[in-house]
Amino acid sequence: MKEKVLKKREGFEGQQLIVVPRKISADFLTRDPITRQLYITDIGYYPKARFHYVKRPAGVSQHIIIYCIEGKGWVEIDKKRTDIGPSQFVIIPANTPHKYMSDEHEPWTIYWTHFKGEISAYVVELILQRTKNNCLHLTYNETRIRLFEDICINLQKGYGGDNLRYVNMTFNHFLSSLLYEEKFNHAGEEQRQDVIGRTISMMQEKLDRVITLQEFAGYAELSVSHFSAVFREKTGYSPIEYFNHLKIQKSCQHLLFSKATVKEIALRLGVEDQYYFSRMFSKLMGMSPSEYRNRNTTV
Question: pTM here?
Answer without folding.
Answer: 0.66
